[in-house]
Amino acid sequence: MSHSKKMPLEISMNFLSLMVLTLGFLQVFYKWSILGSGHIKSFIALPLIAAVVYVAFTFIETSEKNINLPIFISEDRSKNIKYNKLLVNIIKNVMVIGLVVVNWRDLSSVT
Known about the structure:
The chain is mainly alpha-helical and 111 residues long. The chain has helices at 8-35, 37-40, 45-62, 77-108.
């Protein structure tokens, strides 16, 4: 398996993360239309931060030079790159989902 090919776990985590991020933005805009723009504007910050994290970590994942983690070390360089990319992908998606879930809980306490 080439290290540039995405593993099924990476693909599914990216899909899940993008779906949660989309639902988070939809919830913010839904609550915004119900309650007005005064109080809800502050709730857009966490989904925007999550989107920036997603884009930044995706950029880091794309280049082998950006990933220099001593987490998984073996003699085979392609294995190092593959598993370090997987680690960066999991960290990215957990951060994005976590930010959206925190925002989701805060928004649901407003109404």
